[in-house]
Amino acid sequence: MSLDFRNTNTLWASIITETLKRLGLTTAIICPGSRSTPLTIAFAQEKQIETIPILDERSAAFFALGIAKKTNLPVALICTSGTAGANFYPAIIEAKESRIPLLIFTADRPPELRDCHSGQTINQVKMYGNYPNWQTELATPSLEISILNYLRQTIVYGWERSLFPTPGPVHFNIPFRDPLAPVPDHNSNYLKSQFSLKNFFDYIQKTQQELPKYASFSILHHFQEWRNTERIIIVCGTASPSFPQEYCQAISHLSQTLKAPVLAEGLSPLRNYNQLNPYLIATYDLILRNQQIAQQLTPEIVIQIGDLPTSKELRTWLETTQPKRWIIDPSHHNFDPLHGKTTHLRISIEQLVNHCQLEANFNSKYLQIWCDIEAKIRQKINQEMTAKENLFESKVAWLIPQTLPTETPIFIANSMPVRDVEFFWQPNNSRIQPFFNRGANGIDGTLSTALGIAHRQKSSVMLTGDLALLHDTNGFLLRKKFIGHLTIILINNNGGGIFEMLPVSKFEPPFEEYFATPQDIDFAQLCATYNVEYELINSWQHLQQRLNPLPEKGIRVLEIQTNRKADAKWRQENLGKFAKGIDSREVL
Predict the structure, then answer these.
(1) Calpha distance 423→436 (Å, rounded)
(2) Cβ-proximal residues to 71 (8 Å cutoff; 6+ apart), any chain
(3) What's the rounded mean pLDDT across residues 329-342?
(4) d(CA 223, CA 510)
(5) How far apart are CA 401 and CA 461, in angstroms?
(6) Contacts of 322 (CB under 8 A, 6+ apart)
(7) Residue pLDDT, tens place only, 180-222
(8) 3-class secondary structure per residue, 538-588
(9) Helix 393-403 and helix 564-574: axis angle, to 10°?
C-alpha cells in the first residue's frame, strides 16, 4: 500500500482509491478527460483494482452496471467535467430501479471557475436528481489532516449508502484545481513525513460490503473487543424511541455487562429512566471542561448510540483523543460528524443486546472514577440551583424534570433551551418523553411541531425561547383544530441568548441589532390576539404549581422573563467551575 504524495490532488485521489480498495472495490471504469486526471492516475496505479478505460460514457455506465449486477458489489465509474457525466444518466436510472450499487465520480471545475464561461463547465451538483441513494460534492482538495479524515470517512459512507439499506447508485462530484497532472509539490512531501498510513487506514474492514446482513453478522467479534477493554464508554445522543423503556433497558444491559459509563444527552430518554442504569453520567459536559480530568479519562473505545450529543465539549474531546468508535443505529445515515476511526453497526441497540448472550464484565476502576465525579458535580449543581431564588434561564431546565407529571411529552426548542437541558436536566424516574427538531437544528416550525406532537395525546409541554416562538406564531392558528393540551414554557430574554455565548457578542455594534435581534414583544397581547391563555410566572413555586397537574384542553403560555446578558454571564462564569474543585489525584 502507498499513497501518492506528489501534490495535493494526487494525494486526494490516492486516498479515495486506497479507501475503496480496503472496502472491497474490485473494478473501476474510467472515461477519458482532463479534469479527472488525478483519479485516472490513482486508479491506473492501483494493481488490486481492475481499471478499464472506455471511450463512450453511456456505454461505460451500462458496462459497469452489468459488472455490478453479477458481483453484487459497487463498481466505480469515473468521468471528466461537463456533459460527460450527463451520459451516465440512463444507467444510473436503471441502477436505481434495479437496485444495483454504483459509485459515480464526476470530476468538476472548482467553484471559482463556475458560472463564468470557463469552458467544459456545467452545474453538476445533484445532476442526477433523486435517483442516487446519496449524493454529495466533496470539498476542494487540501492537505489539512482533518480534511483528509473527512475525505476518507465520506468515501466510506458513500460505499455504505450504495449497499444499504437498498443497493443503488451514489454520486460524488469532485472539484479539482490545477495542477491536474502529478507535478511535485514540496508541501505534500512535507506531509508525507508526518503521516502514518497504518493509523490512517488500518481500521477499515471489507465486512462493510455485507451491510444488508449486518444485523446477524460479526456482532460477537466486535463485542469481544469491547469486553477486553476497560477504558470504554457508551455515548447516547438524542432519541425518541417508540418503546423508551426497552431502549433504556438494552443500553443498561450493555453498560452493566461492559462496566461502561453511559454519557446520556439531555434529550435522551435515559435521563428520565434513571433507575434502570446505575452508571448514568449526566454532567459529562461539565466534567470535560476540566482539561486535566478530561485528558486522564481518555477512553480507548467509544460505543455511540445514534447521534452524538449536542455538547461541544464532548465532541471536541472525542475529536482530540481519537478513540476507536462504534456507532449503533439501524438507519443508513452517517452519524459521525467528527470523521473518526468509526465502524457503523447498522442494527438497533435492542437487536444487538438480544443477539448477544451478555455476561457481566470485570470491575472497573475507570467506571468508578466517572461515577464518583458525576456524584460530586451533581451535588454541586443541586446546591447552586436550590440556592438561586431569582428567575434565570438555566434553572428552568433543572426544575422541569422534578416537576412534570409522569410520562409527560415535552418538546425542547433549539438554541439555548437545548443547551441548558444538556447541562442541567436532572436524571429522574418520571419517564418524561423528550421530542425535538435536531435534524437541521433550526428554530422554524417550533410551535407547530409541538402542537402536532400534543394533538390527541397526553397533555404536553414545550420549552422555548422568545425568538423560536415568534418565528412560528402562525402555529397558533391551529388552535381551532387542535385537540388536547399544550403548555408553552416561554423563556423571554428578549433576543437570541445562544448568540451571547459566541465570540461575536463582544462586538457592539452590530451584535445587538443583527445577532441578538430583540423584538420587544408584549406576549400577553400576542396571546390575546390568538385567544390563547397567558400567565406571567413570578416565582419558582408559581411555575411548579402550573406544571403539575397540567390542564387537559387548550393552549397556554407561561412566560418567564429573564435577563439575557446576566444569564449568559452566569453560564460563562460557572459552567467551568463545577468540575474545578475536584482533586485530579482521584483520576487514573
Answers:
(1) 16
(2) 26, 27
(3) 87
(4) 53
(5) 12
(6) 340, 341
(7) 899 998 888 788 888 888 888 888 877 444 444 444 446 777 8
(8) CCHHHHHHHHCCCCCCEEEEEEEECCHHHHHHHHHHHCCCCCCCCCHHHCC
(9) 80
Q: Where are the beta strands (DSSP E) in 93-217?
A: 102-108, 134-137, 169-175
Joined grid coordinates for residue 289: 471542561
Q: Which residues pair with 486 in a beta bridge?
A: 460, 555
Cell of 82: 461537463
d(CA 67, CA 65): 6
Residue pair 222/203 in contact (Cβ under 8 Å)? The answer is no
CA dihedral 345, 350, 351, 352 (to 10 degrees): 50
CA distance 214 to 330: 10
Banded pLDDT at 451 (limits 50, 70, 90): confident
Whether residue 182 contacts residue 4, with contact meaning beta carbons closer than 8 Å, is answered with: yes
Sheet holding 169-175, edge to edge: 50-53, 27-30, 75-79, 102-108, 169-175, 134-137
Amino acid at 473: T
Burial of 224 (0-12, 13-18, 19+ CB in 10 A): exposed
The Cβ of residue 469 has, within 10 Å, a number of other Cβ atoms equal to: 26
Q: Please count the residues of the chain.
A: 588
* Cell 425561547 -> residue: 465
> Which contiguous run of DSSP H or E holds residue 344?
strand 342-345
Q: What is the SS3 assignment for 293?
A: helix
Closest CA to 153 of 316, 318, 22: 22
Question: Minimal CA–CA distance to 491: which of 544, 404, 412?
Answer: 412
C-alpha to C-alpha distance for 121 and 584, rounded to whole angstroms: 59
Q: 160 burial class (0-12, 13-18, 19+ CB within 10 angstroms)? A: buried
- Cα dihedral: 373, 374, 379, 382 (round 10): 150
Give CA–CA dist 23/19, Å, rounded: 6
For residues 255 and 261, give the distance between their C-alpha atoms in angstroms, rounded to a whole number: 7
Contact 378, 282 (CB under 8 A): yes
Between 105 and 343, where is the model more confident? 105
Q: What is the pTM of this model?
A: 0.85
Are 286 and 579 a contacting pair, CB within 8 Å?
Answer: yes
Containing H/E element for 68? Answer: helix 57-71
CA–CA separation, 433 and 103 (whole Å): 40
**pLDDT for the residue numbered 588:** 53
- Distance separating alpha carbons of residues 133 and 135, to the nearest angstrom: 7
